[in-house]
Each structure stands twice: as C-alpha cells, then as structure tokens.
Design brief:
With 448 residues, the protein is α+β, with helices and mostly antiparallel strands. The chain has 4 domains: 63-134, Fe-S cluster assembly (FSCA) (GMP Synthetase, Chain A, domain 3), CATH 3.30.300; 152-255, 3-layer Sandwich (Rieske Iron-sulfur Protein), CATH 2.102.10; 268-311, no CATH class; 317-447, no CATH class. The protein is built from 10 helices and 25 strands. It has helices spanning 2-34, 37-44, 47-55, 63-80, 109-124, 297-303, 326-331, 367-376, 407-420, 430-444; strands at 83-91, 94-101, 130-134, 152-156, 168-172, 175-180, 183-188, 202-204, 207-209, 216-218, 224-225, 237-240, 243-249, 268-269, 276-277, 282-286, 291-295, 309-311, 317-318, 338-343, 350-356, 359-364, 388-393, 401-406, 446-447. The strands form 7 sheets. A 7-stranded mixed sheet has the order 22-21-20-23-24-19-25, covered by helices on one side. It has a 4-stranded antiparallel sheet with strand order 8-9-10-11, with no helix packed on it. Strand 6 (175-180) and strand 7 (183-188) form a beta hairpin. Helix 4 runs antiparallel to helix 5 (109-124) and helix 9 (407-420) packs antiparallel against helix 10. It starts with a helix and ends with a strand.
Length: 448
C-alpha cells in the first residue's frame, strides 16, 4: 500500500511540475513579447537568460547566425595554422563544416575540430544537435610521445597574453607558447625528432629551430617540419573575454601536464637573479654542491658555461635490453630497489643516489662494478657527465626498468617520494608512486 501511495504522489508531482513549467513558459513568452529588439539582445547576453530563451525558442539570434559567430571566434586560431573553416549548411540541427587550407586533411585537424571549434560552438549554440566536418584526418607523423586521443578540458593560461611578439616560452610543464606576429600559438614542448624541449629552440619569424637536432618547424602551418615529414603536436588555444585558454588532457597534469604535482617546482624567483619563474623553468646542476638550481632563461643561457654549473640533460631513453642481473645489483649494496647513477665530470667517479625519507642519500659506486656493467651495456659510455643519470627501478611488478633521464627528473622523483614517504620502508604507496613516475617517463621516452 505504501508503494502505491508513493507512485500516486509522484504522478501528482509530475503533473504539477508540468503545469508550473507551462505557466512559466507562457509568462516568459509574454515578457519577451513586450520587449524591443535591443532589450532582448541585452538580456540574451546573460548566460542564464540566454539558456531560458533557448529552452522556449525565444532566443533573438537564429541558430545559423550563432554558429557563424562561433566560427568567427575560432577563426583566428585556424588562420594561425594557415587554415580556415566554412559552414556548408544546417541539416536537422547538425552543422556541416569544411576545413580548408593547411587544416584540411592534416594531422592537426582532429584536435582543431574537436577542441577549438566544438568549444566555441558549445558556448554559442548549445542547442546544436551535432557537427559533421569534412577534412578530419587521424594524426600522422606527430611526435612519438603522443599517446592517442584523450578526454580534454579547457584551462586558462595565466600571463600568456604578456608574451612579446617574437617570443616563445614554456608557460607550464610540457607546453610551449609562441607569439608569432601578434598571434599566440601553443605546442607541446618537445621536438618531433628528438627529446629536446622546443622552448629552448630559436624562433625567427614563424620558424622554430630545435637547437639540439637542427630540425626547423613552421609554427603558422600547424608545426610542419620544413624539408621533412615530421610535425609538432599543436595544442588548441582560444582568446576571448580577456583570457587565453588551452585544451589539455584531463589528468595530464599528473605527469607533465598543466597542473603538475607536489613534486614540481612551483612559481618563485630565479636563484641567480630576481626574475620571477613559472611552474616550468630551466635547471642547472651546481657541480660542487650537487643540487638543482632553478633559473630563468637568461641565466640558463649565460651561466651554463660557468665552471660551477652544468645544464641538465635533454633526452629520456627507455632501455629495453639493459643487462643487470641480481648478483651484479647486490654487489652495489644499495638498500632500496631504486637508484640513479651518474658520472661526475669533476672527479670522473660514478655516484649513486637513492631516495629515502630524508631526501637523497649519496654514495660512490665501485669503479670495477661500473666497468663490468658498462661492458654489458655500451650505452653507458655515452652517459653525459653531471647532466643525466641511469635510473634503475627494481620495484616494478613486471620486472626491472632502466631509463636514462635528465638529472632534474631524478631529483623530481626524489622529491615526490620524500613528500609521500611513510614509516620505515616508505609505506604501501611507495611502489604506486614510483609506478606513476615511470609510466610518465615511458610516455615521454624514446626507445634505445
């Protein structure tokens, strides 16, 4: 009996709600009827009122016009990549679009469409039933670090509007923004042909040249390589309402995205001058104190050649065939199954550092043990002194992992572990923390 009573009450509530909405809609229509065109336009500028007008088919601007206005908003982004978009028509509430210019059929079309255009259309025409676009192609010849299509979110990029013409900076981890002739362009901060960051390259006009490998990319043409088939990975960027927004993968901040984590250096000042720093900035290694120094671009360029400093490395290599058996590892007498090893340019010794609750613990590796390991792994002979290290992870469930990575990445791992360490042996989250870190390294690494 109780269930039957609840059903009747629900039906009554639904009927009353329908009556209320009908009366509400009739009232909105009557108010709308006494307003002039200017008043309707002013009210429609309010997002809440605009939604009410759209709900009752009272919006003063037709669907087609709103779609055209949305495309005008996103057009500067498309033109910055030497492309454009046109509306072919509206069929049953579905907008048919065509991408033209460099956007048509290129590897960047998918991101350009699904993120930039879709964001603009959703804001201006939420009643649009869908979009159908001619010119979408799957990404091709992009950086090997691109790991498929992920869900994205739009994030405000603070300070991007202050980048001067001809300037290019790393505004946050793994994001490079350039100002080419007054137009802002965003790309993932890595070269398509080598592991070096784009933010360290040379920008002349619209051409960005990687200083590590010499490859040149045309930024206004979706980052296509000049005299080659490679292409940078563009990041959709929109300007409007005094804001600059970029589209990033949801959760990308955990490993190299916009958000970062507690182990990433936050905003502050250059340790060698008073200039402020963003979340993503350059690092130097202080050779005698063996610590990472956070520096601005100018100090990084001017002080990298000083006797006491050394720039950290730029490559990340995933070593699939590295040889190190249990007996050899035991001979190193490292108390934890995780360590990084580097060669000192001052003493030519091999230094072993491993994380603990107190931070970094340092010791010297026996030269004969290193020689035996180098004999089995020739790549160690090319390890750049003081700039990069061999990271050994024997905590992984699937077997040991070996990576050559920039030294600041090693210190970032130590900082992450220190912030999450609990108990005597690190606690149950230690292995999960290390797994997350190495998963991020593997996504960015090049196989060796």
């Amino acid at each position: 009996m109780a269930a039957e009573t609840e059903t009747v009450s629900a039906q009554e509530l639904s009927e009353r709600l329908d009556q209320l909405l009908e009366m509400y809609g009739d009232g909105v229509s009557r108010i709308h009827a006494v307003l002039d065109e200017r008043q309707r336009a002013l009210l429609a500028a309010d997002p809440v009122v605009a939604s009410i007008f759209l709900m009752h088919d009272l919006y003063p601007v037709g669907l087609e016009q709103r779609v055209l206005e949305a495309l005008e908003e996103v057009r500067p982004y498309l033109e910055s990549h030497d492309g454009n978009v046109e509306l072919l028509g509206l069929d049953d509430g579905v907008a048919r679009l065509r991408l033209t210019g460099s956007c048509h059929g290129c590897g960047a079309s998918l991101a350009t469409l699904e993120l930039a255009i879709e964001e603009a259309l959703q804001a201006a025409a939420p009643d649009l039933a869908g979009i159908d676009v001619d010119g979408v192609a799957p990404p091709a010849h992009l950086s090997a670090r691109s790991a498929g299509v992920q869900e994205t979110e739009w994030v405000v990029l603070e300070g991007a509007g202050e980048i001067p013409r001809g300037g290019h900076v790393a505004r946050s981890p793994n994001l490079m923004v350039a100002n080419v002739a007054g137009t802002l362009l965003a790309y993932r901060d890595w070269c398509a042909g080598c592991p070096a960051p784009l933010s360290g390259g040379m920008l002349l006009g619209g051409t960005l040249t990687c200083t590590a490998c010499g490859r040149a990319y045309d930024l206004p043409r979706a980052g296509r390589q000049r005299d080659g088939d490679l292409q940078l990975e563009p990041v959709p960027l929109l300007r409007g309402g005094g804001e600059v927004k970029v589209a990033v993968a949801i959760g990308d901040g955990d490993e190299g995205g916009l958000g970062g984590d507690e182990s990433t250096h936050g905003s502050g000042h250059c340790e060698l001058c008073p200039i402020g720093l963003g979340d993503n900035h350059r690092h130097l290694l202080h050779l005698t104190e063996r610590r990472i120094v956070c520096v601005c671009e100018t100090c990084w360029s001017m002080r990298s050649g000083d006797a006491e400093f050394r720039p950290t490395g730029g490559r990340t290599l995933w070593l699939e065939d590295f040889q190190l058996d249990d007996e050899a590892w035991s001979s190193f007498q490292i108390p934890i199954g995780l360590a990084f090893m580097l060669r000192s340019g001052l003493t030519d010794d091999v230094v072993v550092l491993y994380p603990s609750a107190a931070g970094v613990t340092e010791s010297q590796l026996d030269t004969l043990a290193w020689a035996r390991m180098s004999a089995d792994n020739a790549i160690l002979d090319r390890l750049e002194p003081d700039a990069e290290a061999l990271i050994v992870n024997r905590l992984a469930a699937g077997g040991p992992q070996y990576v050559i990575a920039p030294l600041d990445e090693c210190y970032r791992l130590v900082g992450t572990i220190k912030s999450r360490w609990s108990g005597i042996n690190g606690g149950p989250q230690l292995r999960a923390t290390v797994d997350e870190f190495f998963a991020g390294l593997q996504r960015r690494a090049v196989a060796a």
